[in-house]
Q: What sequence folds into this?
């Protein structure tokens, strides 16, 4: 990041030098301009293009995604996913990523493919980031569930798993909370999948892991405070689960 900033500052200084060389105050007190040479025009155009590419969030997103697609080693992939997490904390940009750049498809593939725990965990964190307090992305996740249901996948393969790394299970809980928070359809899906019961069972089964126990309790409390508006039929059908969250 420091090298990028220094590069931009150097470009600005050169750009300023080129442009100021082409005007000067005449004896009449007026500023007279000389036409730029082709070489200097090319330099200015290049400097402006570089500035746009390094400061326009969408351009940065596109470049990061392209780099991630081409990356082969694990450390580079982790670094680039972390860059995405930092970048997509902006709600509008997160929505653009999910809607226009196949974000959910990429995240799904990152989670379900391969065996590397760190890569999977990073993609789960990315999902949590783009979904947190973002109703547009929550809606898109609900629509995407026809192709792939993140809630069902996490509940069956992470929450209920007794062999999975605890780090992954904790991150999946964060993603679940982000997906269902204040969202009627996603919350209803979660309850219909016996999500509350599965969290209760997880709490019973991991008593020896203090960190995971605290994370499960945090998730349950988060659910309690973010229950969305529900129909009367839904309230009656899932009265037991909802009473636990009251």
A:
């Amino acid at each position: 990041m420091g090298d990028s900033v220094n590069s931009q500052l150097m470009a600005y200084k050169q750009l300023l030098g080129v442009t100021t060389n082409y005007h000067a105050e005449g004896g009449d007190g007026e500023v007279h301009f000389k036409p730029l040479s082709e070489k200097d025009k090319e330099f200015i155009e290049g400097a402006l293009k570089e500035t746009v590419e390094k400061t326009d969030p969408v351009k940065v997103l596109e470049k990061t995604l392209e780099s991630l697609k081409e990356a082969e080693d694990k450390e580079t992939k982790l670094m680039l996913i972390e860059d995405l997490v930092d970048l997509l904390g902006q709600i509008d940009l997160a929505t653009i990523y999910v809607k226009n750049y196949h974000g959910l498809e990429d995240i799904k593939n990152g989670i379900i493919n391969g065996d590397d725990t760190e890569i999977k965990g990073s993609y789960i964190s990315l999902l949590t980031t783009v979904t947190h307090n973002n109703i547009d992305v929550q809606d898109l996740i609900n629509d995407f569930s026809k192709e792939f249901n993140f809630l069902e996948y996490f509940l069956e393969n992470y929450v209920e798993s007794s062999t999975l790394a605890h780090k992954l299970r904790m991150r999946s809980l964060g993603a679940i909370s982000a997906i269902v928070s204040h969202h009627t359809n996603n919350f209803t899906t979660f309850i219909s999948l016996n999500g509350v019961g599965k969290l209760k069972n997880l709490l019973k089964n991991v008593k020896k892991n203090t960190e995971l126990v605290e994370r499960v309790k945090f998730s349950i409390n988060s659910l309690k405070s973010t229950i969305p508006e529900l129909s009367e039929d839904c309230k009656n059908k899932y009265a037991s689960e909802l009473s636990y969250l009251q």
Observations:
- The chain has a mean pLDDT of 88.
- Residues 1-55 form one domain.
- The longest strand covers residues 23-25.
